[in-house]
Known about the structure:
This protein is an alpha+beta fold. Helices cover 18% and strands 21% of the residues. The strands form two sheets. Strands 1-4 form a two-stranded antiparallel ribbon. Strand 2 (25-28) and strand 3 form a beta hairpin. The longest helix is centred in the first third of the chain and has 5 residues, at 15-19. It is globular. The structure holds iron/sulfur cluster (2 copies). The site of one iron/sulfur cluster has 14 residues, from helix 2.
Amino acid sequence: MAVAIDQNKCVGCGECVQQCPLDALKIEDAKAAVDEGTCAECGACIDACPEKAIAL
Ligand code: SF4
Ligand code: SF4
């Protein structure tokens, strides 16, 4: 399991990458991408996203 990133809403700002304690997020082709094997669904990135592009 992992968070879902809405590619239509993501603007690639990188705020979520900064907030992830497990380093499960990165920016790929100007959009956030999650490593599903690393994400623990802690929710920190959801609160950090100004575009509300991340959901569980
Ligand atoms: S839910 Fe937590 S572990 Fe998963 S990508 Fe977001 S900040 Fe990282
Ligand atoms: S914080 Fe939101 S808009 Fe910014 S890169 Fe992450 S998912 Fe995309």
